[in-house]
Each structure stands twice: as structure tokens, then as C-alpha cells.
Design brief:
single chain; alpha+beta; six-stranded antiparallel sheet
Length: 284
């Protein structure tokens, strides 16, 4: 029985001369109604040498939700004179370059990919076929002992500079540091990646790349046994019968019947550490 690591599909990382760590600050959590208000990105090589950077506030008419403002501290008045969304996004695309030459990194990449795809479509710009590696999902495999996998918690545990936290430029550099540290510590980063693709907003409910066996389980009504980082049961393997996929605020879930708890539950894909198809039985 083949066990599939839940970090996605293999990529030839040595084919890329540089990577771009990216972060967005937003007015809220829903890409359908909220907006990107700050963009930060840093391009660096495999040695961790910074090659270039991009940073801008973005002017929108959508005010920040109080909870979002409490996190990033960007007042609506701070961005009145900033470039509008279309201008800022085109400048970002110019910075990123051609999709086949650019791999982006983001912490909770499903969230960032959903926002960027939606904003590009809203601005009347084409949605390029960029790929975005999720450092959040990878961190659960590389640092299973960590008490938290948010960027703040990991930066604190790894001794990164935390000044400017929750601002796009500073957080993009922490994503860069995290990626370099994970590549240094674990071969899993070299063989598999948690991978998202930018796609048209109407398709944002689709499952990210690299989950072919899980998709097969849904289509063929087969059960899987998986190790899951989260929930009251801990990471011990459990049998579930996947039924469908959903995406909310850029986070992808598999809805499955849990045979341990005998009920239907949602499981975040970025917390599925590994899984294997079960031959016969258990389907509900």
C-alpha cells in the first residue's frame, strides 16, 4: 500500500535560479468581498541572497475590518495616496516575470492565491499560471513538534527577527527565512511541495495540485487512512471516507465521514500529514 505524503507533487526545485516570497495584508478574510491593501515580495536565490524586492500599499474603497486593522495596523487613510489595485497588481506582475520562471512562496498559500487570483480578475487583468508553494503545510511536516505553525510562532521558535510583523514586506522576508531553514533541515522540501496554482475565481473551490489519490478516493468512494495534525484526537492515524472538497477564505478542506467519531467532519488539507488508500470496506 503506497503512502502519499500530503505535501503535494514533486518539483525540480534545482531548475529555478530564484524564488519569490510574497505576503499580502487585506481588509478581511474573504477574497470575494475583501481586498488586498498591501503587497510585499522578495526575490532571492538558493543561497538566501536577496536579489530584489517589491513593496506597495494599495488604495481601495473597501475599509478594513476592525479585526484586520488590529492585526496589521494599516489605517484606511494610510493608503489614500497609494496606487489603485490595477496599477499595483500590474507592477507586481512585472516584478514576478514569466510564470515558468517564477515560483512563489507564501505562508497559507491557498489564502494568498485566492486573493491574488480574485484581485487580478477584478482588475480586468489575466490570471497567469503561477505556482505558489505553501510554507505552512510544509512546516507541519518539518517541525511536527512546534506548538504553533503560524508565521509568528515559527519565527519566534526559530529566532527570526520579528520586527514589523504582520506587514507585508517584513512577513515576506520571514517566509523567505522559513523556506531556507526548512530546505536546510529536511529533504521533504526537496522531494515534495504543497503547491497551489493561481486560477480564475470561479474555480477557487477546486482542490490544489498534488492530491490525486485523495481525489481518486472521492471519485471512487474509497476510504483512506490518514495522519492529521489537529483536532482532539491528535495525529494518530484515522480512517475517513472523503466525500468532497470545499474552500473558504483561501483554505482548502476535505469533507469526509470520520469512522473514528462516526460523523461527517471537515479536515484542512494543510494539516493532513500523510494518507493511504484503503482497499475495500469502511465507505459510508
Amino acid at each position: 500500500m503506497q503512502v502519499t505524503r500530503a505535501t503535494g507533487i514533486p518539483m525540480r526545485l534545482d531548475e529555478y535560479e530564484s524564488f519569490v516570497a510574497i505576503d499580502f495584508e487585506t481588509t478581511g478574510l474573504d477574497p470575494a468581498t475583501d481586498r488586498i491593501i498591501e503587497i510585499g515580495a522578495v526575490r532571492f536565490d538558493a543561497r538566501g541572497i536577496e536579489l530584489s524586492s517589491f513593496e506597495t500599499l494599495v488604495a481601495t474603497e473597501t475599509p478594513s475590518h476592525p479585526r484586520a486593522f488590529a492585526v496589521h495596523g494599516i489605517a484606511d487613510a494610510d493608503r489614500v495616496a497609494a496606487p489603485d489595485s490595477a496599477t499595483a497588481l500590474q507592477a507586481l506582475l512585472d516584478f514576478l516575470g514569466e510564470p515558468e520562471q517564477c515560483v512563489m512562496l507564501a505562508h497559507n498559500a491557498g489564502f494568498d492565491a485566492a486573493f491574488l487570483s480574485t484581485e487580478l480578475s477584478r482588475a480586468g487583468l489575466s490570471v497567469p499560471d503561477y505556482r505558489m508553494i505553501d510554507t505552512l503545510a510544509l512546516s507541519r511536516c518539518v517541525f511536527p513538534e512546534s506548538r504553533g505553525h503560524g508565521l509568528d510562532a515559527l519565527a519566534r521558535g526559530l529566532g527570526f527577527d520579528r520586527s514589523g510583523a504582520h506587514r507585508a514586506s517584513a512577513d515576506s522576508r520571514r517566509v523567505m527565512q522559513l523556506w531556507l531553514e526548512m530546505r536546510r533541515r529536511s529533504p521533504v522540501v526537496e522531494t515534495s511541495v504543497a503547491l497551489f496554482k493561481l486560477q480564475e475565481p470561479d474555480d477557487l473551490s477546486t482542490v490544489p495540485e498534488g492530491w490525486s489519490d485523495l481525489i481518486r478516493a472521492v471519485r471512487e468512494r474509497r476510504a483512506i487512512r490518514m495522519a492529521y495534525a489537529g483536532g482532539s484526537r491528535g495525529p494518530a492515524p484515522r480512517a475517513v471516507s472523503p466525500r468532497r472538497f470545499v474552500t473558504r477564505a483561501g483554505v482548502s478542506f476535505v469533507v469526509a465521514f470520520c469512522h473514528l467519531d462516526e460523523c461527517e467532519k471537515e479536515f484542512r488539507l494543510d494539516r493532513v500529514l500523510r494518507y493511504e488508500l484503503i482497499d475495500g470496506g469502511l465507505v459510508r
